Amino acid sequence: MSTYRLIILASFITFFSFTSLSYAITESKERDIQKLLKIMGTSSIVQEMSDVLVATVITQEKQSYPNMPKKIEHAISNIIHQVVLEHASELDRMIVPLYDKYYTHEEIKELIKFFNSQIGKKYSSVLKPMMQDMFPIAQEWGKKIGAIAAQRVEQELKRYGYK
After folding, report:
1. What is the SS3 assignment for 127?
2. Distance (Å, rounded) from C-alpha 91 to C-alpha 95?
3. Distant-in-sequence, close-in-space partners of 18: CB < 8 Å, separation ≥ 6
4. Alpha-carbon dihedral of residues 89, 93, 95, 98, nearest 10 degrees?
5. pLDDT in tens, 109-143
6. CB under 8 Å to 65, separation ≥6 — which residues?
7. How far apart are CA 107 and CA 81, in angstroms?
């Protein structure tokens, strides 16, 4: 891996390591937030982040080494997944202040009740596949409105004497 890429990877990891906020929170609220995060499945979020990081690093490395063997890709993937897994609990600790900031303790308790309910469990189980189904729809919509916006911007620029 090139020195430049190692610096970028280290910067990425450092950024996420030092972005936790200083905060005062009761032990009870923090425990409930941790419980909520577990119920909501933050481990799957960590897995998805790990997958994205693996794909990014392998794509970058393939630009430098187009004939990189699959066993090297596999080794890179294993290393990144292992490092992410080793440090996954840090992400929860860094997320806790956000939940503390945006939700009262009572709201956290209500969210726990919701995610433990049948509809909350269903919401959790269908959210990821539903988002995957939404992605191509949103892409198509983005193409459509992107073309409309580009046309209108071009017209506005012409109005001001550009292009």
Report:
1. helix
2. 6
3. none
4. 170
5. 999 999 999 999 999 889 888 888 998 898 899 88
6. 72
7. 33
